[in-house]
Amino acid sequence: VLDPPKPTVDARQKVILVSRDVSLTCQATGTRISNVQWYKRARPLSMQQQVVTKGLNLNGETWINTLMLKNVRIHQAGWYECRVFETNEAFGFWSTHVKLNVIGKE
């Protein structure tokens, strides 16, 4: 049995000033990954905001998904979830979270 592709993030929490840009990066390695995607409030975020790269290594493929948020507003604060989906997997996905704090006045 192969280990699941548990996702990791570059930081569990980020603080950003309002109107600045921020990126959230998620990485997973496995042999049966079909997708890595960012969500907020259980809804998938636009793939136009996400940059996905894949590379081969001894443990399979490493997928990196960087969510790029431009000109961040107060309402964008909150928990962001990175989900890693496997092919042919009944369990669905594995996930991890990042809390984004936005400070300042708009």
Structure explained in plain terms:
This protein is an all-beta fold. Helices cover 0% and strands 60% of the residues. The chain is built from no helices and 9 strands. The strands form 2 sheets. It has a 5-stranded mixed sheet, with no helix packed on it. It starts with 7 loop residues before the first strand and ends with a strand. The model has no long low-confidence stretch (mean pLDDT 93).
Offer a few descriptive terms.
elongated; four-stranded antiparallel sheet; five-stranded mixed sheet; 106 residues; mainly beta
Secondary-structure element order, as H and E? EEEEEEEEE
Shape: elongated
Radius of gyration: 15 Å
For the largest beta sheet, what order do the strands appear in spatially? 2-9-8-4-5
> Strand share of the residues?
over 45%
What is the count of β-strands? 9
Extract low-pLDDT stretches: none
Q: Main sheet, how many strands, which sense, barrel?
A: 5 strands, mixed
- Provide the helix percentage: under 10%
> Tally the helices: what do you get?
0
Structural class category = mainly beta
What's the average pLDDT? 93
- Measured distance between first and last alpha carbons: 51 Å
